[in-house]
Protein: Helix-turn-helix protein
Organism: Allonocardiopsis opalescens
Amino acid sequence: MDLVELGAFLKSRRDRLSPQAVGLPPGTRRRVPGLRRDEVARLAGVSADYYTELEQGRGQCPSEPVLHALARTLRLDSDETGHLLHLAGHPAPIGAEPLRMQSALRQLMQRLDDTPAMVITDMHEVVVQNHAAQVLVGPQAGLTGIRASFLFHWFTAPATRGLYPPDDHEYHSRLLVSDLRAAAARRGPADRTCSELVRHLLAHSAEFAGLWRAREVAVRHEEYKRVVNPALGTLKVTCNTIVTADTAQRLLWFVPDDPGAVAALRTLDPAEVWRDTPGPAFGVPPARG
């Protein structure tokens, strides 16, 4: 539970919502960019004093019905609603995947010989990659500490951004930070791994700091992206995701639009592909057989 962050998140969502969006007149003497606190409180069915305490990070933890009422009032989507529940210490609804899902992910990935696939954590640490994934995005596994996270490299090592076309960099930055924001809420403020990564990026990346303050939240599901590969050029791929029940790990697999790329991903040597363009390939290179 993190009531201070809960209050800051509520305020950021209130600021973005116009009176017209909730059926209120715009008025001519507004001093705030979005709704006023008393307007949110009235629409959610709580007292203005109680809502003010929530935004200030004070008072008791709100109940799930109150949080859902606030979510409806503030027009939160499913990702943002889950984030709100996590901040208040309530579990967000998840599926009923088996407890040994982490092992199952690895076994499933090993069967995807024809598809680039890898298992990552919610901190974007690569646990394992198959051969095709190493060729596609470069070897990214084998590191420890905050340097194991793709976010560390994306925001502190400019060469890493060569993995995507420059026009897509802003999109990927926002997506990475909004996903990390959701993970941070699930892990809680006492989590050392997440806290150390966030502190480092706040201190070393003005771009990350600005996006972190925006408090956008989005969990990655299916994405369409362009990958710049040194040997194959720019590939359009669909990135699909399966998440474990505890949300700590996820399986990613990439489906290229060009079927001809699949054969090349199976046969090329990732160490040779990324030898002269090492930026995205920050992990331990695969052993050569």
